[in-house]
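hey can u run this one w/ zinc ion bound, need the structure tokens asap thx
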Amino acid sequence: MRSISSVKTQYHVSFSPCSAFKLCTIFVLAVYTLAHELYPGKFRPTITHSFIRLLAEKSLLHICFTQNIDTLERRAGVPDHKIIEAHGSFATQKCINCKQPFDGDKMKEHILQKKIARCESCKGYVKPDIVFFGEGVRIVIYD
Ligand SMILES: [Zn+2]
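ok here u go:
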């Protein structure tokens, strides 16, 4: 793990509150650029996704554990409660400050128009619930 001083040296960044805000803005811009490229709808479920749906319809699917973030399992018709998206997905989003959920249709509109969504409560940035390097993966416990 690199220290903050090595990051400062490599990127010539000073970590004042102002620059921390700029780094946050750069991070959010990167998230939205990625989201625009990967946003669901540009790709279609494969026959394998359909096979997983078929297993669910026949009550043969216990759980679909995926590290994909593209929601193709959902688009194929696999029930939400049968899917664990370990790296999150574009299916939900929330404010990075207060964690308030953000409407999916509004988020889609923002991403497709390359506009950054802001929280309706605290005006913080809204981020799709995808997991980035350095963030913890989702932990789900089932009985
Ligand atoms: Zn908020």
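The longest strand covers residues 88-95. anyway lmk if its weird
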